[in-house]
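During the first year of the project, the team set up a workflow for recording each protein of interest as an amino acid sequence followed immediately by a discrete structure-token representation. This format lets reviewers and collaborators read both layers of information side by side without switching files. As required by the reporting guidelines, we include two representative entries from the current panel. The first entry is reproduced here exactly as it appears in our internal archive.
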Amino acid sequence: MIATTNAPLRAVIYTRLSNDPRGDGVNVAAQEEACRKLAASLGMTVLAPVLTDNDRSAYSGKPRPGFQRLMAMLADREADAAIVWHADRLYRQPRDLEPLVDIVEKTGQRIHAVTHGQLDLSTPTGVMLARILAAVNAQYVSHAIENMKARKDTNRRAGVHPGGPRPFGLKAVKRHAPGEAPQVPQVDPREARLIREAADALLAHTADPETGLSLTGVCRAWNARKVTTPRGNPWTVSALKKVMTSARVVGLIEFEGETVGPASWEPILDRTTWQALRTVLRDPARSAHLSDGHGNRTPKYLGSGIYLCPCGGTVSPGGSRVGQHPRYRCATGDARHVSRRADLVDDLVELTVVARLARPDARAAFSAPAAPALAQPSADELNARHAALTARLEALADAFADDDEADPVEYRSASRKLKERIAAVEQRLADAQSQAAAAREPGPLDDIDIPELARRHAADPEDALTWYRETYSLERRRKILKVLAVVTLVPGKQGRPPGWKPGTPYFDPDSVQVDWA
């Protein structure tokens, strides 16, 4: 029990708010102010800091750091009393009440609530009332959750956004009063345009990693343009992927992976593009955190994965010690294969490329002829095939559910075959969309200012190289290089070249072989 002294009791204040979407903590601040007034009226000294669990539910069972610290302070007698706005700030479930009862029984600490005075946990009657209150609180929350789920289900079936944070691509709607019909969200034109641009870039990147943008690339572009999520946060790969594969962008309501029905707002993407995106972005073989479709991060060097070793493999940068220049080495890791200083090789290759682009026949020489069109089913035909197969799968499931004597093995076999055919159609749709998106991308030389490059090269080749690198991104220059030439790093001459001086780089230009495509 607490020793009787003339010193004022030490009180710790605990505040909590289950949901704080704005994150401003206004409600917990009001709780704290009321608790401080109660402490003053009781002659208690308030300990610092005030313990707070903002935007945390007491019903879910998830850890509450503030509550856990409060329990430890009471158990260790670091405080003589706890003050809360209401008992339900402390517990919403009986499981949180029982440890508090044990502590009070052992230490005699006091629990005060602004709304209903002292919570008596030192007598059997007080404990009984507290347990009844805990059970009532738990039932109230459970009933509220059931009502919320029912409202959301009603909204979904009516084609209205079920609630929660504003989805990217749709305008915010005002909360409706009980009994009023919810407002229908409207498409946000600016965000819808961004989604369409991102869809084209992602599909183009899938068809050709040197075109379009990866998920990481789109995130970087949006963040650079100060485009934020609806909550005002920078974009991440997971957040962007969720938006691009959501049924909302195609005007559908989806719940737990199943399509409930059409939405009441206009679709942002057409069904074919959306289906292609879902197929591509949900491919299990795809690593979402990587920035291209081949398991490699965005290259930082011109020749990474492009230059060849005499063995036929590509080279990759790295392997240099701290303070030394990065080197291209054969990706096989065999130390007997080529090793070249990366910056010297890149300078030589791009000086050669710039010199070739400066020639009058460059554009005509490297413009690829249009590939002959292959006979392929149209998007409408593939969509119709997809719809027919999906309908057959649903009919099969209904027939199995209605037939008590149906063989589960036969059902699973027929279902698997239909799902395989549906997946094949979805893959063909994704391939067609990716190829169409890639075809809309400009060719490698389409917007290269060749006259300006030629003028600068005639005056000063080094200046032309600097302008070329400053004007066009590394990604673009890599694409140009892949179209123009095959670069092979071959063994260099033995010994130092004539005129070599100590301290200067030793590099044999003849060890870089450039063959024009």
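The second entry, processed by the same pipeline in the following quarter, appears below.
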Amino acid sequence: MPKSGLTPEQKKWTDQVLKHLNLKNVDEVQLDETHSDNTEHDKRPNEVNPGQPGARRARVLVSKDSTAAHQEQAARAATEFKAEITQLSNRYQALATNAQKLDAQARKQLVTKEHIDLFKVQIEKISNTFKQFNKNFSGQQRPDAGTISVLKTLLDKVQYHITEGKKVLQQGCEHADAMIAKEMPAVEAYQNTVEDTFKHRDELTQWGVDTTDFDKAHRIANLPLLRMQKAISDHSYQGLKFMLGKIAGKKEAFVKAYDDAKEQIEKNKEEAQQQLDKTLADATSLNKRAPELEHSPEALTQFTAAFEKVATSTPKGQQALSTGDYQGAAAILHDNEGALFQMQQLWFSNATTADGEADQPIEKGKPIPTRKKIENLRRALEQAYERLPFIKASLPNAHQYEAECKSLKTLLTSAQSDLISGRIEDAEEKVLPLRKIRFQLYSLTHKAKEQVQWVEKQLTQLKDDASSWLDRRKDLKLISQSDENARQSFDAYEKEAENVRNHFDSAAGHIESGKAIQAQKSVDEGMTSLKRLISHASDIELD
């Protein structure tokens, strides 16, 4: 007997395949018609195509010759059978998915009863054919050639009905598009209003208008528009009609939000004009008292330079407002207020008439003088600006703190002008609002400190979590010495351990510097790196 040429492993595998397929000494596979009466075969019923001859079933002819040959033949037959079943299964899944998608599309797109009924016929046929497929396939561990032929024919039948369903769907889409076209004037009118109104947003931001309400109204008005556009692209007349019923009032609300915001433009313009005029008036009034600084030439020079800056910049700010350049006017106003504030500080520090009162002790039981209150608030402003770098490094909403600082400085500048001009009552009225702003600054500072403390707690916890995994290095190294895969995982572990330590050191340094935002970033990166470290360590232990 000739040798098979198979390795022991191949022979063992082939025997297992033969056992599974219930085959022995297989030499060839032939169809039944070569060993059966054709007349008898033709009498077999065809479940798929009634009236046609029944499917021919395959059978295996057994021979006791040539072990190597029958093993090779069995292996090839098993491979081909597996490929055929896999192909059949894949096609079944693909057709089932296509049928589901087709049905979902039809639910959106079909409008008329005629199209819906025609489509239902195809869907029912698809469903029934799948049921036939499952009935023929279920319970058979190894379908024979005849059954496989039946199954293929059933899937061909499913494909046919899917194609017919697509034809119905195409007709339905064309009808739906025609109905959608009739609704397009309403859609376009809504779209034009929403889009044209939104174009004014840049204008609002340029004039320093808070667009929170405007943006919210736009989101509410724009969502139905997006859904209508989706319905149109899906050929879904029903979806479009539904959304058209939901847009009532949304367009009008958005237009009103814009009108309200537009009113703020005029208010901001008028307020900026008034602030420019007032800053110039206060600076001019204070400049008249320049002789009180003559005993301090250096202070007088700075005082005069600050005034000249206000005097020359104010016309430029007014010109910017008249041309619609609010941002340019606002920048000039900010610089002018800073120059006026500098003039006031120089006057309080050096003017002869300003001496004496500030240093006088306050008698117990008597109210604190307005000037002393203003002085305390001025000191609070200086401290607030000193803390600004810390706040920016610790709070994501640091812009709120910076805005409060500017508000405090603007109002304080006005209060100091009142105080210098002798309008004590006017200055006193500004003290309470100034203290409220100072309280907001204190509150934000407290939040920034809490943020640093919170990140520090996270780092401490993360270090505790990491310590047990970092301490396993010696054991993991010992395990890795006996396996190549484990050695590769250990190298990755070593690298990641270094990354973990670097992230921890970076976070600790940022915490020490009071930079909570950067510290949080390092902690998050350290957490991600630790997860990779644990994964590498687990791989080593599993190997």
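For the second entry, the following points were noted during internal review. The CA atoms of residues 93 and 156 lie 13 Å apart. The two ends are 46 Å apart (CA to CA). Both points are flagged for discussion at the upcoming steering committee meeting.
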